[in-house]
Inverse folding.
């Protein structure tokens, strides 16, 4: 860890993650409205692209060496909290270039990868006086919960979970393609993920995330069910604000509830049917309290 530097904020960071497409974007927007600095380089989904560049590494698909993860956390913290302001030494520059060369972000969009790298080089850091807390939202963060917990003793984590049957029919299957082998999911072709494989990943990834959160961040994590947020946004926003430690009241929560909009994809599994899944998969979803009919 960079000596004492992560203590710029007394608490945090606040990390938001989950299986891609779960609704992490609205949580990031809520956190921003609660005066949490969520990053300077975000895409339309409000993913922190610096985290994406450093951690969505193709070479880590099976496992990630602890030393390399630690190194990337150092770089991410340095850029996020303090900034390089164009003064990037040759060793740091080489490390960032190395991360870029194996990043899935750069493979999918080389121009975005280069732009993100330039943005990191010019990072100016956070003015603590402008924000109560800091953090980031990047769905893949759940893969690195043990390392995040070790690096940040005061980190807090929000895991958002959406009905896996809906998730199985999403076009967003990037995580399954990148991390699937960690959960014994073998894809015949990298570009094709079946609904059953998607649901298998959802079950396994969320189970591991809960286990790791309970093991490494006891009493410092919150699970938000996306369907509950849609059903009663004020009550869920109250829970989130209390967890974050943000200044809030019922009036603020009512105003923020306008940010919560139900997409047309809610309940799409009903139109697609359940024939793509194994009976035990459906029962596992039901056992978690999600609708299956």
């Amino acid at each position: 860890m960079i000596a004492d530097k992560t203590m710029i904020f007394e608490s945090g960071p606040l990390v938001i993650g989950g299986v891609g497409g779960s609704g992490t974007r609205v949580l990031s927007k809520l956190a921003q409205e609660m005066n949490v600095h969520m990053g300077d380089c975000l895409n339309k989904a409000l993913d922190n692209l610096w985290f994406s560049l450093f951690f969505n590494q193709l070479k880590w698909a099976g496992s990630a060496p602890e030393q390399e993860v630690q190194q990337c956390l150092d770089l991410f913290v340095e850029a996020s909290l303090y900034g390089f302001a164009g003064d990037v030494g040759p060793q740091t520059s080489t490390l960032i270039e190395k991360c870029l060369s194996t990043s899935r972000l750069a493979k999918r969009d080389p121009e975005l990868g280069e732009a993100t790298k330039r943005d990191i080089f010019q990072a100016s850091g956070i003015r603590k006086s402008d924000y109560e807390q800091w953090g980031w939202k990047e769905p893949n963060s759940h893969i690195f919960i043990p390392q995040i917990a070790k690096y940040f003793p005061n980190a807090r984590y929000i895991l958002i979970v959406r009905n896996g049957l809906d998730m199985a029919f999403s076009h967003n299957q990037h995580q399954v393609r990148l991390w699937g082998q960690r959960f014994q999911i073998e894809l015949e072709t990298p570009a094709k993920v079946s609904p059953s494989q998607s649901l298998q990943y959802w079950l396994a990834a969320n189970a591991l995330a809960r286990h790791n959160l309970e093991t490494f961040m006891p009493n410092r994590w919150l699970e938000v069910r996306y369907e509950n947020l849609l059903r009663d946004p004020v009550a869920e926003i109250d829970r989130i604000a209390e967890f974050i430690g943000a200044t809030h009241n019922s009036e603020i929560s009512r105003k923020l509830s306008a940010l919560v909009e139900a997409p047309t994809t809610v309940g799409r599994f009903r139109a697609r049917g359940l024939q793509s899944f194994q009976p035990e998969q459906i029962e596992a979803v039901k056992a978690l309290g999600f609708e299956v009919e």
